[in-house]
Amino acid sequence: MDKFQKCDLNFKITREEDTEDRHEIYFTYQSEPGYEPVACLVIPKNITKPLPLAVCLQGHSTGMHISLGKIKYDGDEKLLYGGDRDFAVRAVKEGYTALCIEQRGFGECGGDEHGPQCHISTMANLLIGRTTIGERVWDVMRALDTAEQHFSDYADINKVICMGNSGVLSVTGIQCSSNRFLLSFVIFHHSLTVPFPSLSFDAPVQSRAVAPEFIR
After folding, report:
1. What local confidence, expressed as pLDDT, does residue 116 receive?
2. Of 58, 144, 178, 197, which sees the most CB atoms within 10 A?
């Protein structure tokens, strides 16, 4: 990660919303100079102490609103209900605070109503010695810094899990193997193809390549 530079987080809350069982705080933060991802912290109603944090990475879809259980575009119903991808909604029901992050190339950070457009930035990155997966991992790391600094009343940063599907499986696995904060992870997909046509891994194979600790 030596090509990434820490900078001021420039944390900004953009809006807040309430539902029957949760409170949602939408915000931006600066993960590296000049780039500010969009994210949302989802907090169960009536919590009395910081809860374990579930980082929800929606994978290849139209955006993080899928993790939030919200329909924004035509076809989102299939993505949402066909794959049980409302990760944040379920996490809150299970007693977690949830953190949704708009991945680069998806939704508000580069996608559109047709889905992700990450192939464009990925090809450009390869020309300058970067990878989109590396950028996404960095964004998650800086999102955890943001949670630690600004949301410690709601999230226990020492008890963090990460869940994701599709290409974000790689981000999930790398985060867990880093052993920085993440202690466990969940995978919702069957296979992963890395940027080399001859290499393809089933999800269980990659999951065995990392060794997350168990949250006690």
Report:
1. 63
2. 58
